[in-house]
Specification:
homodimer, mainly alpha, Methane Monooxygenase Hydroxylase, Chain G, domain 1, about 5% strand, transport (chains A, B), ALMT (chains A, B), transmembrane (chains A, B), ion channel (chains A, B), ion transport (chains A, B)
Chain lengths: ~525, ~525
């Protein structure tokens, strides 16, 4: 089906395809050039696009978190300062050719937070000093034992110390605090003992290394603490506060989503709102919290935090928040389910569920205020009391459900009340199956309330450890001009006692012991060594 | 009441206390010595105890994970080898005094897994090479522009490059893969440009640095891959397999705990069994998984894994497992609660709940086998079918609950069946409140089954991506000597079709769409940038 003809000295292949169109085949050499050109163009365009995207991402990151840009500028500045040691002849001659150790120290030690930088500086200085002195001792012993034994002693000591120290870096207590120091210890020990065999000016080497490390570290500490310091402690504090806010938002969003009208539901179904998804940040922030708490311990007093601020307690708050977020996760999937509870049941429980979720998120919001202002709140106990009262109310509604909806109980069976039965929709024959999603939702809501109390306990412990002061009376006056904080307390006492006649106190205490939150939290902590 | 008397030249104070005993006060100097001695003894004892505890911990760690000891020995060995450059005169003269760069490279680059070591080696080599060439270029330009401008040009270039590169380390794509390379880039660039101003043998410096880095990295790669290699990929694989087993154990343990006799319960209540707590490891393993998957990408083919094994898919499996673990966490707290469902309800649902949990954990155990053998399983679909069948059975039981227990429905009300009512215990007037913990438990069990299907999907995707082969027929014959895999499939088909007449298919599809597991998983993934 293919024929060839001579056109202006070039061989052209024409293939007759059944449908009548014809493809002209260009000679191979032209084709190759064309292909290469296309390939090169594609490659270049792709490269430019990739670089452009990278720069765009970087720009966005810089705009979103200017602190990161500032950190970059700070590192540049420190390196510029340290390189003056080279440019200025007197300084250069003071430290000798080893000024490069100072450059290296700055590059390696400068971290984005003050705590991390301090941790590395102290580790580096200590590791260098300890290893240097130990190496000098070993070197002295090796020197005394003759030329044959010298390399053997040094070799064995390097092997043993390096092995043992490397292994020790796996031990949790070393790993969290002295990991970098252990590495520097091995490094310095090997360098000093091994070069000691050649370089005769051993003391000088050790001294120069120590002094240049000192110059580098002090420069780093100075720059990181003076120019726009970024504190790991403040970061951790802000993270916890932000996560508390997100939890409150998620809870509000989830329950609101569940009990709003069905008509509006379909309008917003295209994507779950970002506000509701906040709890996922809480689920994923464990590693960040641990790193930050670890570095925060090295930081001096800054802002409103003392030197020995109980940063470890923040981890406990974080653990109890994650504990609560697990439940919100389950609640979220429960709400996203397509099986909806029967409308009459929904209506019956809507108000009490909304009340409980509102009260729960109000406790969270009060905790946010406590954390933000670092003051004890006089309102928090009242709010927790209200939350527990809402739990009781919800239980009350549950107890009244079977009488009116699920079916008459034994007592009503003996004297059937026709008027009461009229309220049951005829189409819906209720079964446990229908009640199910609602039951899970209510269970999870009560569970969440219990776990929020766990968060409140953790925050309260923090308030005790960090000696938060009581909020000023003026503040509470501004918020509630008619009530004094003493009357608040009276309210709270009233709240504690008033529901007793309404709800069986036994049920209340049963429900309170229903959720062993503290156990769970301490268990979660227990998995961390 | 105090009198003094002279006894053999020393002044002794005697205080007469009303009850007649007398305290002899030793002179102050003796007291101080005593105190100091006690203090010193306490200090020494404390120190010895601390060291002893540390060693004990280290010993335990070494026994539990001998890989970590091996890693320590490997680092010691590499350092010993690299120090030969110093001991052997010809080698020393070949590399010059810069042999210490090789020592430093070994200490800094040698990580516990092959992937991490390779990642650091490649980063270090590339960073050094790129920065070295760029620095030479800048140095050349600076040299050409005269003595006044030279330090200015170098200073500005160091400042700009260091700032930009430091900032780029925050960009996620750089951070996960090239973080170390970026640091080495800054380090080398600063060292070469800044020392270029003084050291006239610039090319030599760059060459020596490159060659010593090459010696160090190749030695590290050789040792880490030849002597007992520890692969990040295998580690990640084992972690996922182990977590799957733990999930299955937790599920079995939780549900077993719930439905076992009350009498035996009190015997084991002093501490939750370790087996049940396995899901907590799953909750906390996100960070580890991410680090390992990141390093596994750098590793060559090893064991049963190819070079481009889909390690990223393991993160998805991990995410879906965590998703399931959230539910088990809620289930666990539900079971630990003190409110127990009424016994008749428990009995009614016990069998179906146990069946569902057994089937669910069998799916998990089959997934473990799939992962362990890296083969596709012919049984997994059958098992998932059985699990879904159990879900239907449970729903069935739920639908039958209200007729017999909760209270007569409208239909039975019209013709009260006295015989049926006899089965209701007279003492327990059932309400939604009583049904609650049971309802939540059942809900969570069904939710867990749905999420286990999510895990199975993720594993199935892995099987597709990594091209797992079908398990040999011999294997399935050995396990089930009476059934062939073909008959298994037939069974599965039967399982798929048979329940349809029993259960309303609409309800089934409703329940299947009840739990949008995949959405949740992809959402979870979405929070990772």
């Amino acid at each position: 089906m293919a024929n060839a003809k001579q056109v202006s000295g070039k061989l052209e292949w024409r293939i007759n395809v059944p449908d009548g169109t014809s493809n002209v085949i260009v000679p191979e050499s032209d084709q190759l050039v064309n292909k290469a050109w296309l390939w090169l163009k594609g490659l270049l365009c792709g490269l430019v696009l990739k670089i452009w995207r990278f720069l765009y991402k970087a720009w966005n990151l810089g705009v979103a978190e200017p602190k990161k840009v500032i950190h970059g500028v700070k590192v540049g500045l420190s390196l510029l300062l340290v390189s003056f040691f080279y440019y200025m002849r007197p300084l250069y001659e003071g430290v000798g050719g080893n000024a490069m150790w100072a450059v290296m120290t700055v590059v390696v030690v400068f971290e984005s937070t003050v705590g991390a930088t301090l941790c590395k500086c102290i580790n580096r200085a200590t590791g260098t000093f300890l290893a240097g002195s130990l190496a000098l001792g070993v070197q002295w012993i090796a020197n005394k034992s003759g030329e044959t034994f010298e390399p053997i002693i040094i070799g064995i000591s390097v092997f043993l110390l390096a092995s043992a120290t490397t292994f020790s870096r796996f031990i949790p207590s070393v790993k969290t605090r002295f990991d970098y120091g252990a590495m520097i210890f091995i490094l310095t020990f090997s360098l000093v003992t091994v070069s000691g065999y050649r370089v005769d000016r051993l003391f000088e080497l050790a001294y120069q290394r120590l002094s240049t490390v000192a110059i580098g570290t002090s420069l780093c500490i100075f720059i990181t603490m003076v120019f726009c310091p970024i504190w790991a402690g403040s970061g951790l504090h802000d993270l916890i506060v932000c996560n508390l806010e997100k939890l409150a938002d998620s809870l509000d969003g989830c329950v609101g989503e569940c009990f709003k009208d069905n008509k509006t539901k379909f309008g917003t179904e295209e994507g779950p709102s970002k506000r509701m998804q906040g709890y996922k940040c809480v689920l994923n922030s464990k590693a960040t919290e641990e790193v930050m708490a670890n570095f925060a311990r090295w930081e001096p007093a800054h802002g409103r935090f003392n030197f020995r601020h109980p940063w470890k307690q923040y981890l406990k708050i974080g653990a109890s928040m994650r504990n609560c977020a697990y439940c919100i996760e389950a609640l979220n999937s429960c709400i996203n389910s397509e099986i909806q509870a029967p409308d009459y049941l929904k209506k019956h429980l809507s108000d009490v569920c909304m009340l409980l979720s509102t009260n729960s998120s109000e406790v969270l919001k009060e905790l946010v205020i406590i954390m933000k202002t670092l003051t004890k709140s006089s309102k928090i106990e009242l709010l927790i009391g209200e939350m527990n009262f809402a739990v009781q109310k919800l239980q009350d509604s549950l107890n009244s459900v079977p009488n009116s909806f699920i079916g008459p109980t034994v007592s009503t069976l003996q004297a059937p009340n026709e008027a009461n039965r009229e309220t049951i929709p005829k189409t819906a024959i209720p079964s446990l199956m229908d009640v199910f999603p609602m039951a899970s939702l209510v269970y999870l809501l009560i569970q969440i309330a219990a776990r929020i109390e766990g968060i409140a306990d953790a925050v309260d412990q923090l308030a005790g450890l960090a000696e938060f002061k009581l909020a000023k009376d003026e503040n509470s006056k501004q918020k509630k001009p008619t009530n004094k904080s003493t009357s608040d307390k009276q309210d709270h006492e009233a709240m504690k006692t008033s529901p007793k006649p309404i709800v069986d106190p036994l049920i209340f205490s049963k429900w309170n012991s229903f959720f062993p939150v503290e156990e769970v939290v301490s268990d979660l902590e227990g998995t961390r060594t």
